[in-house]
Structures are given as structure tokens and as C-alpha cells.
Amino acid sequence: MSSLNNQGSFHLAEGIERIDRAMADGRLIRYYDTQGQDRSAVDQREQEDQPAIGELRLDPLLNEWVAMAAHRQGRIFLPPKELCPLCPSSEGLLSEIPENDFEVVVFDNRFPSLRAPKSDWQMPEDINFDTPIIDAAGKCEVVCYTAEHAISFKDLSLARIRLLLEVWRERTYEISQLPFIEQVFIFENRGEEIGVTLFHPHGQIYAYSYLTPRSEKMLQVAKKHYDRTSRILMADIIAREIHDEIRIVAQNSEWIAYVPWASRYPFEIHVAPLRLVADLAELDSSQCDAFPSIAKEVMQRLDGVFGIEMAYIAAWHQAPIHEGRDLLRLHWQITSVRRQPGKLKYLAGSESAMGAFIMDMKPEQSAQQLREVKLDLAGMK
After folding, report:
1. What dihedral angle (degrees, nearest 10) is formed by the CA atoms of 16, 22, 27, 33?
2. Which whole-number Å values give the CA distances from 158 to 57, 254, 273, 292, in the listed order?
3. Half-sphere exposure of 253 toward its Cβ, with a 13 Å CA cutoff?
4. How far from chain centre, in Å, is Cα 37?
5. Residue pair 273/342 in contact by the 8 Å Cβ criterion
6. 202 catalytic residue (yes or no)
7. Closest alpha carbon to 364 in 235, 184, 272, 241
8. Rounded to whole angstroms, how far apart are CA atoms 205 and 117?
9. pLDDT at 208 over 70
10. Which of 202, 225, 317, 331 is catalytic?
């Protein structure tokens, strides 16, 4: 079975340059530019010690790993714009980004849930009630989409979304080379309703030393479907959406966006390439070039349903690094808990305790609402 970290090398698209700089505390910041900018600014903050690695404890009821990261209690919480740590540095503000402007930057998280372990770290082979506490091996990075503070993903230019996609692809590939990483998860949280602590437009990357419960379940289901039909599950899902049409939100030559057959949230959109791939690093240039327009449209439609900014989680589901690459396929899942302008869908007893979701609205209804949004064509550039 193929593995992402043995498939040659990755090269950024033509015209994109990456420059790495050291931060005051030893972390790495990576600038991704298209205009040949000089990146010589020095982090002027005082040096501070990085937090120690946290713990992974096994929940014996479910055989699932839980990360313990007590140092995250001290992270910054909803600062005012003038103190935003993700804005460029300026007079009176020494932020995480030493430069006074940037396109896209990626840096190691100051308060990581997971971090690089010692060189002799190993995941226990036998997972059971007696499995001991181990170091919380992994990697956590922050991805800043723009130097502008008061905008969202939907406001980014098509060129910036294309650059961002290239950054996601490169980070997926590079992080996958680390020997202790099994899965790379790229996501964005937006809105206080789902726990955002910084308003600046940004996303995160969590790379795990184990398969997450959702990925394990998806792999199990995909394998069962293949064993029964000799077909890839995601291919059959997309074929049904194209046949039914009613849940499709947007489509272009390379991508399709739809509300899933059994959506769990008031507004849930899946965006997938029509030519299936295992992860972001496997997308070709045609797929990459076609992504920005559908991504921008989907986010505009989401915010346009009620004419307000919708709290959402945008999550890239990718095949793991060492297993399931012949079965699992890339897709972007966008979920919002907003069901009406003044009402949220809270994950209460059935959802939180039992994992049994109950929807008040059929997916066909939310798909229709999303399709009926009048797009800002001037803002689609």
C-alpha cells in the first residue's frame, strides 16, 4: 500500500517562494510570497521557553487517545485588534509575525496540543486498559491567510486562495515526512459560537501520531464498501449526488459542492474533486486552479443565507499517511451550527453523549437555501 512520505518530492507552484526565519523562542515561521519580498525582519520579542510536551492518555472505554495539554490554559483569548498576535508587527505591537506585511505565513503554534517528541519515542503496539501515558507526539501549526485583520476566507482574492491551497498542499507533504506522524488535519474555525479565540483570518494544522476516531471509522466503512462492491465509497457518493442533483450547491469542471445525504448540521457542505485523490498533495495543477472559484462561492453562499457571518468549521479530510490511501479520498467539510439568525443548534444529550445526531431540517432544504443566495459577482475575483 502506498505511503505519502515515500512518493518523491514536492515543489511549490511556479512563482511562489518560501522563506524561513527563526522566531525569538526558536520556533520557525515560513513566509509564502509571490512578489519576491525581502523577509529579513527579526523577531524583537524577548526569548521565552517553549512549553514542555503534553501527555497522551488512552480512554479505556473507547480505546481512543486524549491529549492533555495544561499549558494551553494560558493562551491569548479574544484580544482587541490593536493587540492581535496574528497581525503584522508594527510600532507598539510585536506580534507572531515580525514583518510589517505578508501574504500567507505558517508558524509553529505557541501553545501546541502536540509537539515533536524525543527521537526514541514510539507508539505502543498493544493498545489496552494497561497502556501507559506517553508523550503527546505530533505537530501544531498556525496558517495566517492575510495581513488584513477584519476580513474572512470569502473575502480573499482568487489568487490568494490559490496560494493558500498551495501552502496547504506543501505543509501536508512536508509534515508527512516526519516519522512520528500518521495523519495531517488542516482546518479553520470561525466564530465565537464554536470557540474561536482569535478573530484574525487563519486556520490551523494538527498532525497526529495516531489515527483519529473519525478517520478510523471512515476507513472501516470505506473498506467494507469496497469489499462488498469493489468500488471506492467517495466515488459512489459523488455519483449519487450528481444523479440526484437536488443537493448540489455548486460545481465546476474539477470540483463539486453538495449538502451530504445525511447531514448532521443545519448547514453542512462537502467540497470534493471530481477526479478523486487521497490528499491535498496529490491534486494536479488543473484541480488546484479550479478550486478558488468554488471555494469562494461556497463561503459566499454560506454567509448569504441569513446575511450574517456564519460560525463554521472548515475541515480537510485526507487519507492517512501509511494506510487507507487506496480507499479514503480527499474532501472539504464545512459545518455551521447556525440554524436561524438568532438560533444555534446545540449539540446536547443525543449528539454529545451518544453521538446520535438529530436534524430539524432536511439536507435538500438547506441545499435549496444555499443555491438561492444571490452572489456578489464583483466580489468573486
Report:
1. -20
2. 42, 16, 17, 5
3. 6
4. 27
5. no
6. yes
7. 241
8. 17
9. yes
10. 202
Q: Which residues pair with 203 in a beta bridge?
A: 143
Cell of 234: 467517495
In the chain, the domains with their CATH numbers are 4-210 (3.30.428.10), 215-379 (3.30.428.10)
Place of cell 472539504: 332
Q: What is the pLDDT of residues 33-50, one digit of tens each?
A: 999 999 999 999 999 899
Chain position carrying cell 470569502: 154
For residue 133 the three cell numbers come to 501515558
| Residue 313: HSE in the Cβ half-sphere, 13 Å Cα cutoff | 15
Looking at per-residue pLDDT, the higher value among 81 and 175 belongs to: 175
Residue 1 has pLDDT above 50, yes or no: no
Cell of 263: 447531514
pTM assigned to the model: 0.95
Question: Can you say whether the dihedral through the CA atoms of 25, 26, 27, 29 is positive or negative?
Answer: positive
pLDDT of the residue at 296: 98
φ, ψ (nearest 5 deg) of residue 74: -95, 10
Asked if pLDDT for residue 189 goes beyond 70, the answer is yes
Give residue for cell 452572489: 375
